[in-house]
Amino acid sequence: MTRSLIILVLTVLAGYGLVEAWPLIAGPSLSITTPRNGESFPGGIVNVAGTASRIAMLSLDGAPVLHDENGSFSPTLTFPHGASLLTFVAIDRFGRRITVTRSVFVPD
Length: 108
Hints:
The chain is of the alpha+beta class and about 110 residues long. It has one helix at about 1-25, and strands spanning about 30-35, 40, 45, 50-55, 55-60, 65, 70-75, 75-80, 80-90, 95-105.
């Protein structure tokens, strides 16, 4: 009886530890909702929006991006005529990174 109780308690503690450690194990997550890849913007003004989780730093083309406590961000950028490539990089506190790229086009 005592042995079964000890095994049950250890199993519950191990399960709880895995649930609490999951954000550390999973690494960073990055989702870009706009712009879609290859999207055209006649005016050259691009509203970027997305969500990042489990991150310590978020950058867009090497410049830091401000995000709220939920990980949402929405900067507005202006681009010249032609094609441009946006490179998003999210890094967690352990140095693991995820990179997402989007191409946008501004017609003449």
